[in-house]
Amino acid sequence: MSNPVWSAATRRPLPIVLVRGFGGTDTVDERKMTYQGFNDGSVYPQKRGENYIYEGLILRFMKSDWRFQDATNVIGYYGSDLSAPPVIPAALEAFDPSFFQGKVIIDPAMALRLLQSKDDPCHSLWVFRYYDLRDREFAKYGEALARLIDFIRALAEIKHGTKPKVNIIAHSMGGLIVREAIQRTYPKRGITAADEAINKVVTLGTPHKGIAFQVLRDLRWLGIESADELEHFNPESQANPNNDAGYQNFGKCFPLDRLLTIVGTNYKAYNNVAASALNRMFSVAGEFGMNYNRSDGLVKQDFAQIPGAPRTFVHKPHGGFDSLVSARESFEVATRFFFGDIHVRLRQVQAQVKRGFDLFGKSEFFFGVSIKPRGVDFELFHQSRDAENCYGPFRTGDFSDRTLSFPWADANQLIWEGYLNSAASTTQTDLVMRMEFYVSERDLFGVGFSDNIVFAKQYYVRAILQPTLQLYLYTGEEFADGDDSLKSATLMRRVADGWEFDIGGTGFVGTYRLELDRVPE
After folding, report:
1. Is 2 exposed, middle or buried (CB count within 10 Å of its CB: 0-12, 13-18, 19+)?
2. Helices (H), 265-421
3. Residue 398: Cβ within 10 Å count
4. 0.85 surpassed by pTM
5. How far apart (Å, rounded) are the C-alpha atoms in residues 321 and 443?
6. What's phi and psi for 58, nearest 5 deg?
7. Longest CA–CA separation in the chain, Å
8. Per mean pLDDT, which of 43-47, 372-376, 514-518 is the most reliable?
9. Sequence ranges of the domains in the chain
10. Hey, what CATH topology would domain 341-521 get?
């Protein structure tokens, strides 16, 4: 790894498509929702300033520096095919005529307004209202999504001569619809989605591996209209290597490093009591039965991931107030993934527990980290006792074990990988992250996640970008003093793969490594 001169980079804006999840037996209520819940925000009384009120994804994007324009009303979704209008304005003749007929209709008047406006299509924001189609079939959903993307790109090409790809944020079943388009719709066209249409995808609590409990799927004998949808929640179908739309085949159709799975961990705040209870009853590998409920209330933490793709944990429920679809964390993580220019990985090199070990029971240890960047009071990654998502259990005090029921993110003890935006830094010359390390001990014969806290401590990592990249470790907030703070900081050790640093106290010592790389445009 070289040590170049690092400077803030500005990313090109790209259109954003929002896709909301659903999995019920009818869509009457959902069709009444203008923005499918993406405009729902939250108030955080414990926060201050800008972080006190979060307006939801729609308003946050529109009020951000990217100045996204909401173009939702351009598209109409219908239950039956509609013919093209008898007269189409001459200005629209550059568009494919098929955009103005069928079940997914481009409104000619809205298309004309967009052509005549000074707004950049690359700054546009779209809500994919697939519920309105009423054809409860994934093939139709995938075709409609691809058609919407076609129009967005055609609009940009006509106005500016370039056809941008789009970024997508998809919640729950919405992520499965995006996969349908990537794994089936585009291949049927002879097109690779990553080459022609889609830049990056963020999924929020998407059941990539299905739903652990299969009660809904077993109701297909009722003849409900959503039988095709429910089959996509079937873990057996998703895991079938012969299923071209299964999660195991996603990497064959789309680069895994361009998919980020945001995993919810707060099942207690999910308002569907039945789903939370079923998740506890239908445990999956590594959960130790009903002692744990590693889920967001509906989707198991493990099932919300695709092996090999980046993942991050936020302590939010699947839906409802302040959930994955309406929380500030989702916005902060997604925008850094889309627009960030620095890729960060945190790995464990070695670690050892120095105290604990129950004399009468049987001890096991759990290890977790939470990460927050400077400037926002929201974490990009969260592991804790309440989240039930710490690495472990470790049966001895040596944390080199790689055969864990809640395993490392990869074979080289990857803890977290995420994305930072140097252009959004308060100084644009340095970056600061707070890392909170946590180690707990549990008596294996007891019930519960943790009986004893062995170690809990916060550290601050400051990356000085110029003249050459240097990383410093702080135990307090002295970094706010600027260059004078370097006197109280520890310069991290430069190694072949990154920068290493030591942490520790009376009960725990460890060595960890940070790896930073520039993200290409």
Report:
1. exposed
2. 273-281, 328-339
3. 12
4. yes
5. 35
6. -60, -60
7. 84
8. 514-518
9. 14-339, 341-521
10. Immunoglobulin-like (2.60.40)
